[in-house]
Amino acid sequence: MKLDKLIEKLSPRLSHRSLIAMIVILSVAIIALLGIIFRNDVILPLSSLTSHSEDSNVASMPPLVVIDPGHGGSEPGAGSGSINEKEITLAISLEVEKILNEKNIDNILTRSNDTAVSLEDRAKLANEKKSTLFISIHNNSFTDPASHGVLTTYNPYSPIGKSNAEIMQSKLKTLGMYNRKIVPRPNLYVLRHTKMPSLLLEIGFISNKNDLKLLTSSDFQKKCAIQIVKGIEEILETNATASSESSSEV
Ligand SMILES: [Zn+2]
């Protein structure tokens, strides 16, 4: 039969083709498997070098807080007579540092003495250190000496800027100063150029007599630092919980 002969002739070819096909499939499978092993070997260690914001394990890393005393050196900030903003912001910041150290919360100050530090260098330091939180400390001033009170400013483009500001202001409003609440400030350099959550605190008005009296009191400066640290702790806790919840959803 012609058909039988044809099958006989074709069958060795068919089995040969099947063998080649199997070898090709096996090769592809081996290459794919090697690819997975290679990825695990190479990419996993690199993931530990990614920044805080990109790292899903951020919640398990110890937080690092950057405290930024406003002004310094040749830039005194707001002033009233012989009193300058740069001295008050540094005094409060040093108290904050002391409490953070007592609580074993890692921290860095952008300046710890009377030196001028550019806004660029302040943001750069926080970014390079991949800090968890950036808190800039300032005092307000206005032409109207009646203006007074404490407020927290935040970057409105940050998804958690407002909620962090609300937490911080809930602590600062207990200081006995007028509560000016929270204020979005989209153009503040240090808020815009820091890659981590950041806040800028305007603690009282140097141009207001009553606020100035508080600001120059070491007792008030210590009380203020206690409230700032309370705010920092609650923000770190809230953000870490939110971060672990969002990573567990993935
Ligand atoms: Zn200032």
From TrEMBL:
Classification via InterPro entries: MurNAc-LAA_cat (IPR002508), N-acetylmuramoyl_amidase_3 (IPR050695)
Alphabetical keyword list: Hydrolase, Membrane, Transmembrane, Transmembrane helix
GO cellular component: outer membrane-bounded periplasmic space
Molecular functions (GO terms): N-acetylmuramoyl-L-alanine amidase activity
Record-annotated MurNAc-LAA domain positions: 123-233
Protein's GO biological process: peptidoglycan catabolic process
SMART domains per the UniProt record, alphabetical: Ami_3 (SM00646)
Bilayer-spanning residue ranges: 20-38
Family matches, as Pfam families: Amidase_3
Protein name, UniProt field: Cell wall hydrolase/autolysin
Top-level taxonomy: Bacteria, Bacillati, Bacillota, Clostridia, Eubacteriales
